[in-house]
Amino acid sequence: MIYLASPYWHADPAIRNQRFRAACRATAEMIRQGTTVFSPVVYGHALIAHGLPGDWSFWQRHDAQYLGRCDEVVVLQIDGWEESEGVQAELRLAAALGNRVNYFESLVTDRRTQG
User: Fold this and answer.
1) Are 87 and 81 in contact (CB under 8 A)?
2) 81, 52 in Cβ contact below 8 A?
């Protein structure tokens, strides 16, 4: 199973929503291609609307459990991914777990492998 890492939290709700939509598009495309994928942004965005926090300090425990069940991490390289505390922590955890890490800029058709 693939874990889709992508930035989410930003002070501006419009940017959070934009990041959510980008994660949805990437997740849908991966599913169309027959991939089993989990996106914490797609999953968590709806829950945040029900009062859960949106920052990494809250989600890190949950996301670590999901990462532990995945074989690969794919990083969605949208604005903010390099600065994202969550994405960087997910990459460190993926390395500790020995998970393969791949990157793509827009949709899965642009996937590039690293490591």
Assistant:
1) yes
2) no
Query: What's the rounded Cα separation, in Å, for the pair 30 and 32?
Result: 5
Its pTM stands at 0.88
Q: Which ranges of the chain would DSSP assign to H, the alpha helix?
A: 13-32, 40-48, 56-68, 85-97
What distance in Å separates the CA atoms of residue 61 and residue 108, rounded to the nearest whole number? Answer: 27
- Residue 41 has φ and ψ, to the nearest 5°, of -70, -45
Q: Give the count of alpha carbons within 13 A of 60, CB side only.
A: 13
pLDDT per residue as tens digits for the range 1-29: 999 999 999 999 999 999 999 999 999 99
Candidates 82, 74, 79; CA nearest to 108 is 74
Let me know if 50 is exposed, middle or buried by CB neighbors in 10 A (0-12, 13-18, 19+). Answer: exposed
